[in-house]
Amino acid sequence: MDLRKVSLAQLPSVGPKRLEALQSLGINNVYDLLFYFPFRYEDMQAKSLDDAVDQEKILVKGVVASEPVVSRFGYKKTRLNVRLMTDNESIMVTFFNQPWLKDKFKTGNDAAVYGKWNANRRSLMGMKVIGINDNSVDSVYSVNKNIHQKTLINLIKVAFEKYHDQIDTVVPSYLRLKYKLLDDEQIVSGIHFPKNEEQSEEARRSAKFREFFLFQCGLQSIKRNDDNKNIGIVEKYDQKFLDDFIQSLPFKLTDAQNRVVKEILQDMASDHHMNRLLQGDVGSGKTIVSVIAMLASVTAGYQAAIMAPTEILAQQHFDKISKLLTPLKIRTALLTGSLTKKEHDFIAGDILNGKTNIVVGTHALIQDSVEFKDLGFIVIDEQHRFGVNQRKALRQKGDNPDVLAMTATPIPRTLAITTYGDMDVSRIDQLPAGRKKIETYWIRSQKIEQMYQFVAKELQTGSQVYVVTPLISESETMDLKNAELIFDKFTELFGKKYKIGLLHGQMPNDQKEAVMNDFSDKKIDVLVSTTVIEVGVDVPNASVMVIYDANRFGLSQLHQLRGRVGRGDKQSYCILIADPKNESAAERMKILTSTNDGFVLAEEDLKMRGAGDLLGNRQSGLPEFKIGNPINDINILEVAQEEASRLFNDEKLFNSPETKNLKSFINEEYDQLNNFD
């Protein structure tokens, strides 16, 4: 029976007011009520007083040794005192403002009281009276002012008694057998009414798998629906041409790059629409992989486009791609917002008539005035920098072109599984051979003179230096003042011999790009910046990154900044200046100095700060799970993902009778996205 369609009004004592109270908790039907799980448990196992710690909440069982006495004090306040004999000791139990509990205590009868122990006074401040044979674990729920714990618990008990034998189990039996999972009735019973901690743990483990599995099945259903609707372009590329191009490169692709190229080319050759995310650490070589993919599309007779978030990054991509492909007579073009109308119209004309094979651009690519003859492949660089509508607008420039989204922000496994589940994910997890590890040091502000001395030595070798300061206020004026102070200090120390540049948030975009271009062209030796230096900006001669107030940044942000150096042959360095005021900030500094692996850092950042600061618009946070924690329960999440993927790729299993309840459940949840029947 689908309990999502059973109204709460079917339960006794649920009138309009209580219905509204339940809805304020997100409980809209009987299913929601039964699967509204407690957020913690209180141990209701009786404890010896000798083992109890002062102010600890404990359960005391004993015999009522005195008649209960109710006294009044203050304004409408009451105190109930009763003595219990336990462990051969008589203790006083006191309840405040619960005079009706007097009837629970009869001299000579057994009693069980849960409360806070006062070791000095050998007394208990009672919180609740427990049935002598009740379960040893008590469930605690998240409630609000509209509904009390006791009311909610009673409603859950009533609903379970009435509908327990009508709870449909959605996880197929072969998976429950394989992983020793409980059915849905056992899950609900074991979580709400556990007899002991072991039973609640078993039920919660099963519930976590169930929740993750249903979520992954939902993502698979979206993907399946997209695959059914979006028959992709079969790109019959010239494999020999690609092989010759790869052989001609002045460097050898890493094993990781070769693996990812193979994954992408297999997608392109199939009739399924490609929607793939390519993630790779700073300097891992994502760009050349995208070039090979775009070249494959061109050899298949299509056009390709790559969209970057800023003009300087687009220019950088264009320079690299043109240098590689012009000798092969592949025509490339750069389309940005700073072009004159005449330049824009000329390039747009070549794109429309097919003379241009590969277009590199910014948001200018999605203008109405830009039309392609036959766009077959799209690369979106730093895809989280673009909104959903912008990415969609570029896709609509072609007839369902294949899409490769790239990001230099390492995405933790948790986020990749939960938020990119409808995309295929490729990872370049290997840096090119010979790339030197960036040495990272953390110093406190009192040792800043050492940093100045180090910078002086590096400048003498001809290296360039980045100096980054964080946004210390929402006020741009304060931000600018902070940068100017540091700019003045570096000018005072190094300005006679070296050119010091300043980049700040109040500059118009064209001035920012002019400063970055001057830095790229070695016209600036030290660049002081209040803004995060663009991800992807490539200045091989820059070998030092100095970061002031580094404790104000997250691990992933610091790693991205560090990745601006180490782009050339020189040994590079990152100097973190920080006086952390708490242990968490200090831990970030220690972790960053211990590893250069962006994926390791991303996992740590997720644990320490949560998902919100790691990614852009789409990835503002993890999906909200009721019982599973994607970070702590990553192993269960991964198994659930694997099983969901296996199920959706096995037609025989997918259409077997034991998936009936699952498909019905997913259909109802995702009816606007897919229909299985």
Automatic annotation (TrEMBL):
Pfam family, one: Helicase_C
Domain of life: Bacteria
InterPro entries to which the protein is assigned, alphabetical: ATP-dep_DNA_helicase_RecG, DEAD/DEAH_box_helicase_dom, Helicase_ATP-bd, Helicase_C-like, NA-bd_OB-fold, P-loop_NTPase, RecG/Mfd, RecG_dom3_C
GO annotation, biological process: DNA recombination; DNA repair
Reactions mediated catalytically: Couples ATP hydrolysis with the unwinding of duplex DNA by translocating in the 3'-5' direction; ATP + H2O = ADP + phosphate + H(+)
Annotated ranges, domain Helicase C-terminal: 447-607
Keyword terms: ATP-binding, DNA damage, DNA recombination, DNA repair, DNA-binding, Helicase, Hydrolase, Isomerase, Nucleotide-binding
SUPFAM superfamilies: Nucleic acid-binding proteins, P-loop containing nucleoside triphosphate hydrolases
EC supergroup of this enzyme: isomerase
Start and end residues of each Helicase ATP-binding domain: 267-428
Protein's UniProt keywords contain ATP-binding: yes
GO molecular function, one term: DNA binding
UniProt keyword ATP-binding present: yes
EC number, as in UniProt: 5.6.2.4
Family according to the record: Belongs to the helicase family. RecG subfamily.
Entry-linked PANTHER family: ATP-DEPENDENT DNA HELICASE HOMOLOG RECG, CHLOROPLASTIC
NCBIfam families per record: PRK10917.1-3, PRK10917.2-2, recG
Function: Plays a critical role in recombination and DNA repair. Helps process Holliday junction intermediates to mature products by catalyzing branch migration. Has replication fork regression activity, unwinds stalled or blocked replication forks to make a HJ that can be resolved. Has a DNA unwinding activity characteristic of a DNA helicase with 3'-5' polarity.
Protein's name according to its UniProt entry: ATP-dependent DNA helicase RecG
